[in-house]
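re: ur question from earlier - yeah i can do the single chain one, its not a big deal. heres the input i used so u can compare w yours
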Amino acid sequence: MSDRRLRLLTANLLNGRGDGALLARIVEEQRVDVLACQELAPDQAAVLSAALPHGKLEPQTDHDGMGLALRHPGEVSRLPLRHRDARVATLRPGDWPSLAEPLEVVNVHLQAPHTPTPWTAFGRRRDQVAALDHYRRTEGAGRRILLGDFNATPSWPAYRRLATDLDDAARSHADREGDRPPRTWGPLPGWPRLLRIDHVLVPGFTVHRTRTFDVGSDHDALLVEISV
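and the output i got, formated as tokens:
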């Protein structure tokens, strides 16, 4: 396998109900380089930090826990957003053998459209998407990946705005393979997946592989392998 490849995994862990130990095994077996978590709880964070020792995990018990766990050192900062900040990992060539220049990975968890109430959620989502859209167009946008739980299918305005000028990695791979990208969300753990709301958006990188994993959450974890 080329050392110019990068493996990214995003997983919403259902506020502690997802299986952190199972996710950690997937990280090791799939040689994941960057793990983006949403709804991360303390017990899950403890297991995952042992699998990927760098980055920053910020668990909570109120559905707002997030984090970026990294195989190699990287700076992790917050991108201020209304209601729930995004997390940004800056990966630099000196620490990441696969990189020729710095790369940013932005972990996103957009406000769900129905909670706490639709009229409150709409304003939060609108402001989050506007801020993310502005940020992704700033200097260095050509080396910036957005991934996470968008709470939006490809037909929704939030997705369409954020995916402008970026490639949906799962869609790109599925189109090349003559297949459909996998759905990632169902109403309860173990239920059939009905919607595709977890995404990895990349700036024109070649996508070699995508795969989903059941991790005991209402979301499947989404793995993407790209050349950078």
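Residues 139 and 158 are 22 Å apart (CA to CA). not sure if urs matches, ping me
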